[in-house]
Design a protein that fits this description.
The complex is a heterodimer of chains A (456) and B (395). Helices cover 22% and strands 30% of the residues of chain A. Chain A is an alpha+beta fold. In chain A, the strands form 5 sheets. Chain A has a 9-stranded mixed sheet, sandwiched between helices. In chain A, strands 20-19-18-21-22 form a 5-stranded antiparallel sheet. In chain A, strands 3-2-14 form a 3-stranded mixed sheet. Chain B has 13 helices and 11 strands. The interface between A and B is large, with 48 and 44 residues.
Chain lengths: 456, 395
Amino acid sequence: MSTIKKYAVAFPHFRIADTTLHPRVRSKGNHAVCYTDEDIMTLAFEACSQLQLKSTGVDAILFASTTPVFKERYHASFLADLLELPQGILAFDFGGTSRAGTDALLLADTLVKSGAYRNVLLVAANVYYPAIGNETATPFGHAAVALLISNEDGIAEINDCQSFSAAIAEDFSYKGDNIQYDARFARTAGFVSNMATVLKKSNLYPTTVDALFLNSPYAKLAFGSLKKAGFNLETQLLKDTITPAVGYTGACHGLLQLISAIENRKGATLLFDYMNGTNLIRVTSTIEISKPVLNNLLFENVETYQDYLQLRKQGDFESRGYAAHEMFSSEMMQEREKDHLVYLKGYECSSCGTVYLMKAERCNHCHKSDFKKKQLSKTGKVFTLTSEHYFPASFTPTNMVVIDLDGGGRISVQQTDDMFQNEKTILKIGDGVRLVYRKMMENDKKPNYFWKCKKI
Amino acid sequence: MSKKRDIAIIGIGMTKFGELFNQSYDDLVRDAATLAIKDAGIAMEDIQAAWLSTAFPEIGVFKGRSGMDLCEPLNLYDIPVTRVSNFCASGADAIRNAANALVAGECDVAMALGVEKLRDRTPQDSIVKMMVELTHPFYQKGFTAAGTFAVYANRIMHEYGVTKEDIANISVKNHYHGTLNDKAHHRIACTLEQVLASPMVADPLTVMDSCPTTDGAACVIMVRAEDVNKTKHRPVYIDGIGLSIATGWDLPFFDTKHDFLSFKATQNAAKMAYTQAGITKPIDEIDLVEVHDCFSIVELLTYEDLGLCKPGEAKDMIRGKATQLGGQIPVNVSGGLLSCGHPVGATGVRMVVEVASHLRGDAGERQVVGAKKGITHNIGGPGAIASVIVLNIEN
C-alpha cells in the first residue's frame, strides 16, 4: 500500500494580477510571486515545515523543480540538511520537465510499495519568471508542495502510477522565453498521439474514477479522445481553479491538482500530467480534510509593475549611496554554526534558566557554566525595533526586529514581506511575530539563508 | 583598579576635525603630535613611548594597523609604540595604556595619539559599508551603527515616556555648541523642526541625530605627576580612568535580560573612574562633561549611566536645559560628536583635549567658567565598551 499521508503547500505572500502586469490585457489571471528573499528552497522549506516531520521517520527525500539548472543549494541534499533529516538519506532530484513533480511521485510510490522505504518526502517547488514585458503571455506562478508518501494510512491512497514518454518538442522555456517550434506538429505528433497511447495502454475504465484532471496546456485537444474512451466530461472533468488564482506552477501543478481533488473530496481521481509524455496517477481520497488550504488562499497584491520589477531582482540590493555589495559569507562558518543558524538550537543555563542562542563559557547572569541544549521557538514578541534606511536592500527601509522568543531566547532579525507598510506589516513593541527562513544574500555564487520575521 | 594613578597631561594638540580632503593620515598624525609636543614645551626626542589609536585601518589605506604608522610620519623610531583598537573607546584606551606605563615606570614621557582618516571614501562607503560587508553574515545583519542605537531609543521611548523631541533637542543643543568651536566639523545651529524633518537614518534617529563621517587627530603628552615642572607646563591631572567591556558585539541582541535602557559598560567605567577620583555625587562635583553622542539618543542615556540623574530622568535634564552651556552641568560644549564629527580613533583623545582646555581656561567663547573638574566618556562596539576619564586642574 502507498498513501499520501500528509501534504502542505506554500505560496509567496504576494500576488500580481495580469491587469497590473499589463493594463490593457483582457486576461484576469493572477500570479503568485516570490518576495526578493524567496526562492525554491525557502518555499520548499516552508511547505515541509508545515508537515511537522520530526517523528515521522522520513527515509527518503525527492525534490522536483523546473527552476534550477545545476545550481548549488538547489537540490534535495541541501533540503534534507535544512530539515535535519538523517545524514546519508536517499536524496534524488527531478527536473527538466513540468512533469517532474509527478515523476517524483511515481518513484515515491514505487519505493514505498517495494517495501524498501516507509516514508518518502516528496517536495516540488517552482519559481520561474518569463521575459520582462512578456509576462501576460505565460501563466507563471510560484509555489511549493510537500507530500509525505507512506506505507501507513493517509488522507488518500495511491492506486495507480504509470508513465508514457513522448519525445516530441512542444512548449519549453529558453532564457526566459516560451518557445514552440511548430504548434500543429507538437500538438498532433506530440500531445494527441501520446494521449491516444496512454488511453490505449493503460486499460482505463472510466467508471473506476469519480473525477478527472488533465494537466496540459493542450487539454482541450484531448477532450474528443477522452469522450471516445468513455469519460463523461461534464461530470468527471475537473476545472483547473489553481491557474487563475496563482498561475501555472510548473513541477507543482499536477500535485496541486491532486491536492485540490483530495480537498474537495472527489473520491477516486485520475490525473493525466502531460509534457513530453504523460504521467497517469490515480488516487482515492479516504478522509475529509478538516482545513482545506487551496480554497482559502490569502495574498497581498503587488500594486505596480515597478514593484514587481523590484521583486524580480531577487537580492540584487541597492540603496542610497551604494553600489552592489558582496557581503562576507563562509561555507565553513555556516557548516560549523549550523545548529544555531539553521536549527535554532540554543542553550539554557541549568542554574538560572536564561536561554541563549549562542553559548559563552559562563552564563551572563549567574556566571555558572552548566548549560543544556534547548530548541528555540519560531514565534515570539517584539522587544524593540528600528527601520534601517541605509542598509542596502531591494525595498528600504530594512526593518530590524529584536525578538524575545516564546519559551526563552532572543534573536535579532530582519522583517520580511514588508514591501508595503500597512496594518499587516507595521510592527510595534509587543507585537507577535513568527520566524521564516529566507534568503539573506546571493554571494559566493550561491544563495545564503537565515531567519527573518513576519507579523502574526 | 581603585587607586588613582597620579598622572599629568602636560601637552595637548588637535587638528581641525572635518572633511580634510587635502590632508593624509600621515599629515594628521604630524599636525596633532607637533601641536601637543610644542604645547608641552618638549622635543620629539623626549617621547619615550607612544600609543596610537586608530579603530578602522581598513577604511583607509591600512594606515593605523600598527604602531609604526605613528613612527613613520614623525620619524620617531627606536621607542615602543603600540596600536590600540577598542572601537570608539580606542582613544581613551590609548591614554589609559600610556598612564599605566608611566605608573609602571616603563617610560617617563608618553604620547597618546588618536587619528582616523575616514573621508578618503564617501560616508556610505566607510563605516556603513564595513558593517554591511564584513560583519557576521547573519547575526544582526541589517543593522548599521545608527540602528544598533535606535533600538535603545525606541525602547526608552516605550518605557520612560521619552519623546522624539527630547532626543532631537540633544542635537539642537550640541549643534548650537558647535557654532562656538572653530575646530568642529559642523558649525551650524539648527532648530528642533530641522532635526525632526531631516532624512531618517534609523527610526527615530535622523541624519541630524547622527554624527558625520570625519577626519581628524588629537594628541596628549603625559608624565607622572611628580615629574611635572610647574613653571614650564600647564598640567591637567588625571584623577581616574575607567574602562569596561560589559557585553559583546552580539550579546545584547541575543540576551533576553538586556533591557536596552542603559549601557552597563558606562556604568562600570564611571564607577571605576569615580572611585579612583573620590567622586561620590557627580552632579555636584563635576563642572563639565564630554559625552559620546555618536547618535543623540546615546547622550540622553548616558546622563543616567554617569549618575548625573536617576533612571528615567534624563528627559528632564534636556527639557530643563541643565546640560546646555551655562546650565547646571554643561555637556558637550565642544559640540560633541554631532558637531565635531567622529574620527573614531581620535575622538576619545579629542575629548580629553577639550576638557583640559576648559580646565586651563583656554576654551574661548565656549569656556565653562570656573571649571576645575571634568569628565570624558566614550562608548562603542555597539554599547559594549565604555571609558570614563576624570580630569582635574588640581592634584
